Automatic annotation (TrEMBL):
InterPro entries: ABM_dom (IPR007138), Dimeric_a/b-barrel (IPR011008). Gene3D superfamilies: 3.30.70.100. Coiled coil: none annotated. It comes from the Bacteria. This is ABM domain-containing protein. It holds the Pfam family ABM. Residues 1-68 form the ABM domain. The lineage of its organism: Bacteria, Pseudomonadati, Planctomycetota, Planctomycetia, Planctomycetia incertae sedis.
Length: 95
């Protein structure tokens, strides 16, 4: 099992309420449809930093999902609402 954690900040002026539909679309239309997907959750803290936590069956599944992420239709709107240079993604092996 792999735990993938991504953190990022929204573009100035974009509220969590405005962003949530795009986050949900990425989850429902892309991430959850990928082989090896187990679960995903997302949230925002009081400073406006977002976190998305995705569980995958394997590193290969996580990597395959990232390879297709940029070209997935739902991701364009998602990415246009956040500051790409603030995105940090880390993977962990579940013990």
């Amino acid at each position: 099992m792999v735990i993938e954690i991504a953190t990022f900040t929204l573009n100035p002026g974009v509220t969590p309420e405005q962003f949530r539909p795009f986050d949900l679309a990425v989850e429902e239309e892309h991430v959850s449809q990928q082989p090896g997907f187990v679960s995903r959750e997302a949230g925002v803290n009081e400073d406006g930093q977002w976190v998305a936590i995705v569980h995958w069956r394997s590193v290969e599944d996580a990597e395959a999902s990232m390879s297709s992420f940029a070209s997935a239709p739902a991701t364009a709107a998602f990415m246009s609402h956040l500051q790409a240079d603030t995105m940090v993604m880390t993977r962990y092996q579940k013990q």
